[in-house]
Amino acid sequence: MKKRTTQSYSVPGLEKGLDALEALASANVSESLTQLARRLNRTSSELFRMIAVLERRNYIARDPASEGYHLTLKLYELAHTHSPVNQLLKAAAVPMQELSDTVLESCHLCVLSGPLLTVIAQAESPEAVRLSVEVGIRPFLSTRFPGVLWWLF
Fold first, then answer.
1. Which of 52, 123, 141, 151 has the most CB atoms around it within 10 Å of its CB?
2. CA 83 to each of CA 21, 74, 77, 80: distance values in angstroms, whole numbers, following the listed order
3. Could you tell me the pTM of the whole model?
4. Which helix (H) or strand (E) covers residue 62, if one does?
5. Domain segments of the chain: what residues?
6. What is the pLDDT of residues 45-62, one digit of tens each?
């Protein structure tokens, strides 16, 4: 049997644009072109056209007060246009609520995302006092204690 090798292709422009989007996603506040370039170890002139295109295509916007850039909701909208998660959520909603009502505790639906789990849905317990975590939290499975979840807050 022939061993299949994977080739690594490089598209520098795409890499630069994705780096900019990821940097803005992890920023707590809007960032200027200079701040963004510094964080990415690039020059402002190297990022200028990339930022202009991302702004024109409405992936990022400039804050009128600070003149810094921030993400818009366009990536969120794209992610939810044809989400396979929606079908899973629809199928799981009733069984999750039934389980929560039966065991009198919250029920959380997680999906594997790389080495971590991501909570994508919850059905809250009918009890006034309950254990609950927010959708989007990323617990991870313990390798030392199989079946035990550790929560990253």
1. 123
2. 21, 14, 10, 5
3. 0.60
4. strand 60-62
5. 12-78, 84-150
6. 999 999 999 999 999 999
